[in-house]
Every structure is written in C-alpha cells, then in structure tokens.
C-alpha cells in the first residue's frame, strides 16, 4: 500500500483542513488571515494565461524525427549530421481564427508547428497545412487577423469583414481557393500535410547557401470532411481532431509524416521570373522537385495539457547553425511577432519552461526578469568581458553574407505584379468537376450574407482566375454574370 502524500501550501507547509475557511465563529465572516483561502483563490484567478491571438485552440504530441537521406551537401546542422540520426520533437496542431473553445471542424487553416530539440539548440518550423498564405506584407497581418475574429461592435464573426478585405487583397486568391476547397476542413490532424510555407535557407560546411521550402507529407493519407458532416460533428464532438490524435497515440497507432524539401540555388532565385520569397505563391514541383529528408513520428501524448501544449511556445526565430531565414517579408515580420507574443503571453523567461527548454546547455548574458529560476553560471551579465570562464562568441557559426538589392529606402507597394491569378487558376484546373463545384458551393454559402458591392468586387477576382469559377458563384448568388466580366 503506497504511503499517503501530505497536502501542503505552495511553500510546502502541511495543510490541516482543506474543506473549511477560517471564520469568526460558525456564522461569522471569513478572515483575511486565511492564507490558504487567499492562496487558493489567487492562484485560481491566474490559472489561465492569455490565449494566443491566433492558433488559440490546439493539440500537441511528442515524437522523434529520423533523418533518412544524406543532408550534408545542403546543411551542416547537427540535426542532419548523418542518416539515421534521431531528434526529439514536439508538435502542436491548431485552428487559426477561433478561440480556445472553438470547434475542430471550422473551415480554417490548421497550424502545423514542429519544435526540434537539437544538440545545438531548438529549431522551430512554424507553419500551416497550406503551402501559401493570404498576404505577403507583415504590415497587413493585424488587419487580416481582425477580419477573422469578432466584429468589435456585435462581437460576432462576420463574413462581411472577411470578404471585404479579401476582395481588396487579390494576393489572397490562392489561399482562399485552398481554404474553400475540399481541404478546408481536414478530418483530424493526422490526415493533413504540413508546410513551412515560407522560404527558408540551409547552409553547408563550405558556406554555400540554398533556399528551401519544407513539406511534411502525411503517411496516413489525406482525409477531409464535407460541410454537412462537419456541422453534425461540430454539434456532437467539437474536439474531434484532438480526440482522434490523442486516442490514436494511446492505442499505439503512431501518426507519421515524411519530410521533404524543395531546393533553389541563390543564382536560380536571382533569375527566377517570380519572387521566390512571396509566401502567396508556390514553387512548381516540376522545376523544383521534392527531395526526401526524413520521417517524423508522434508516439507520446502530453501528461499535462497546460504545461506541455498551452505553454508550448514556437517562434520562427528559433534557428540553429546550418539552418536560417530568408528575405521573405512575412517571415521577417513573424521572426519578431511570434517571440514577442510568447514573452507577453507566458513571460520573459518562457524558454526556461520544460516544454520550451533546449535539451542542451544554454549560456547567455540575459539575467533576471519574471520567473527567472535558472542561471548557467555566475559570470558578469555584459559582453565583452575579461572573465576567462565566461561564454564567448563562436565566429565559425556566422551566416555567409547575403547580397540584397540596393535602392532608396521607401514604402514600396508590395503588390508589385498583377499575376494573382495563374497559380489559383492552375489549382482550380487540377480539381475534378466535383471538387470545383464543392469549392463554388462553399464560397457562395460564405458570401450569401455579404453586401452586393463586395460580392461583385470579389466575383470579378474569381472570374479573372477562371470564368467557370466566377460565373458558378455568381449564379448561386443570383448575380448577372455580365456584371463580373
């Protein structure tokens, strides 16, 4: 028979009675000196941390990443040092626009964030289940997210806001077409692909840089949910994706994804006919074929959701030697915004929490701040210094210089071209007639309450993608197709 544990206060003092408050007599008021009551209520008031502004509702799991192909020609990163090397990972899946209590069956992109606990620090790929995004300039990110949240007057989700913004932002057409296709509602997190979406870089031991895009391909097969089935599932089990992932891992049916990359050299990027750092567009697979990298398996559920999933903090700024960023403007904005959001949401020292802590030594000159509890050493908190035992910079890990286009500093129009249509058109033409009709039906259903001027403005954009696209939606909305041509 196991020994009973003593209930204590937070400072470890044994508690004699956890059922009754201290009062002045059996019918008298509660006393302020009831430190057990004060501690319990004060902690309860603070049990929730601010939810993520986006990706608020999510599920997570632990696993391993195994290198299956030789990556040393592309990167000297420790995680890729040899075929067969295994690295612990933690993955968080999420919906984007909803609150923590929202449904798993919402028509919404799905977050796909992977934290690699490498021997040289944590590396995060913070992506989605789509290879592109709605916008290409980070200045527009708060505006876009506001359209996906609640109207500040009614506190209701409002399709008018979404379509008003999209109809004035033609660069969103590619992502909108994916979102309202059959892949807009995945049948659980196990049955969807993941993408880094942005362009990143790899650097090899000779200092040669290549640009890459990351693709996680599900080995469970793609499965999606029809809108009518999603509505039924929303009513019966709004946590269906989280339940599916958790139960699959519990029964030993470990989900797997095969990691691939596309590679573009610096010379190819300079001469490419499109901006290779534009996150609203993909790189064609025929020109830049997928190259296998490794396999990721999720094989352990969190023991505590709050500690391991809610407090998990991902940021594109978490990179390691041999892996780096790119001139992708949206990525550069996220490098600041994500880490800053975690400092606000969790605290200055969020990277010391077990789920976020690197599984390698950490030495820096950051000191103090809320909830600081770990110090690697007692050297001064400034650099340079003359203390022999202090941590020193390592020039061999420097990124090779990157030449950037020179020109006057200005606020240049990020809509540099008018080709918002060729890639959505190629995607539309890849769809079967049934998939095209489902796309048209889904969009028309979302736009039915939108004002006529916004409907026509958006339909003109769809018509430029393909006549059948715009005219099909116009017909359902009862709009004369001549108005959109």
The gyration radius over C-alpha positions equals: 26 Å
Provide the structure class: alpha+beta
Helical segment tally?
13
Tally of strands? 10
Q: Ends: how far apart?
A: 80 Å
Percent helix: 25-40%
Main beta sheet: strand number and arrangement? 10 strands, antiparallel
Portion in beta strands: 15-25%
Unreliable spans are none
Shape: globular
Q: Whole-number average pLDDT?
A: 93
List the helices and strands and how they pair.
Elements: H1 35-45, E1 58-67, E2 86-95, E3 110-118, E4 121-128, H2 141-148, H3 159-167, H4 173-179, E5 194-195, E6 200-203, E7 209-218, H5 227-236, H6 240-250, E8 256-265, H7 266-271, E9 291-300, H8 305-310, E10 323-324, H9 329-345, H10 422-430, H11 433-447, H12 452-465, H13 467-477
Characterization of the model:
The chain is an alpha+beta fold and 485 residues long. 28% of the residues lie in helices and 15% in strands. It contains 13 helices and ten strands. The chain has helices at 35-45, 141-148, 159-167, 173-179, 227-236, 240-250, 266-271, 305-310, 329-345, 422-430, 433-447, 452-465, 467-477; strands spanning 58-67, 86-95, 110-118, 121-128, 194-195, 200-203, 209-218, 256-265, 291-300, 323-324. β3 and β4 form a beta hairpin. α3 (159-167) crosses α12, α4 runs parallel beside α10 and α12 (452-465) packs antiparallel against α13. The model has no long low-confidence stretch (mean pLDDT 93).
């Amino acid at each position: 028979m196991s020994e009973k544990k003593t209930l204590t206060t937070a400072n470890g003092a044994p508690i004699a009675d956890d059922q009754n408050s201290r009062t002045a007599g059996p019918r008298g008021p509660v006393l302020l000196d009831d430190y057990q009551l004060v501690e319990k209520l004060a902690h309860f008031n603070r049990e929730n941390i601010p939810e993520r502004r986006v990706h608020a509702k999510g599920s997570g799991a632990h696993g391993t990443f195994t290198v299956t192909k030789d990556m040393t020609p592309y990167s000297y990163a420790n995680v890729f040092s040899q075929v067969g090397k295994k690295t612990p990972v933690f993955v968080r899946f999420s919906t984007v626009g909803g609150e923590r209590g929202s449904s798993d069956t919402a028509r919404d992109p799905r977050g796909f964030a992977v934290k690699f606990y490498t021997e040289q620090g944590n590396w995060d790929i913070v992506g989605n289940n789509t290879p592109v995004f709605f916008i290409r300039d980070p200045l527009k990110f708060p505006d876009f997210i506001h359209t996906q949240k609640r109207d500040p007057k009614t506190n209701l989700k409002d399709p008018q806001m979404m379509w008003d913004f999209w109809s004035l932002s033609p660069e969103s057409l590619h992502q909108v077409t994916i979102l309202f296709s059959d892949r807009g509602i995945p049948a659980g997190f196990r049955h969807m692909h993941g993408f880094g979406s942005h362009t990143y870089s790899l650097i090899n031991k000779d200092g040669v840089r290549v640009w890459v895009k990351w693709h996680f391909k599900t080995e469970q097969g793609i499965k999606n949910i029809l809108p009518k089935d999603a509505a039924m599932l929303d009513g019966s089990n709004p946590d269906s994706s989280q339940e599916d992932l958790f139960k699959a891992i519990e029964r030993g049916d470990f989900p797997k994804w095969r990691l691939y990359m596309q590679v573009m050299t610096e010379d190819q990027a300079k001469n490419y006919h499109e901006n290779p750092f534009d996150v609203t567009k993909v790189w064609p697979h025929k020109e830049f074929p997928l190259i296998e990298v490794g396999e990721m398996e999720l094989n352990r559920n969190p023991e505590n959701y709050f500690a391991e999933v809610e407090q998990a903090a991902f940021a594109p700024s978490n990179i390691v030697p041999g892996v780096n960023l790119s001139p992708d403007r949206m990525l550069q904005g996220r490098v600041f915004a994500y880490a800053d959001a975690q400092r606000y949401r969790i605290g200055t020292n969020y990277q010391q929490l077990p789920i976020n802590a690197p599984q390698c030594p950490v030495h820096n000159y950051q000191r103090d701040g809320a909830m600081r509890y770990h110090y690697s050493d007692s050297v001064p908190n400034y650099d340079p210094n003359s203390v022999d035992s202090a941590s020193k910079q390592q020039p061999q890990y420097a990124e090779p210089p990157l030449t950037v286009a020179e020109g006057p500093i200005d606020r240049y129009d990020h809509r540099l071209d008018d080709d918002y249509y060729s890639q959505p058109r190629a995607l539309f033409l890849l769809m079967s007639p049934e998939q095209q009709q489902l796309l048209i039906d889904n969009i028309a259903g979302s736009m039915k309450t939108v004002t006529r001027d916004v409907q026509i403005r958006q339909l003109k954009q769809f018509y430029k993608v393909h006549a059948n696209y715009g005219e099909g939606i116009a017909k359902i909305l009862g709009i004369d197709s001549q108005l959109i041509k």
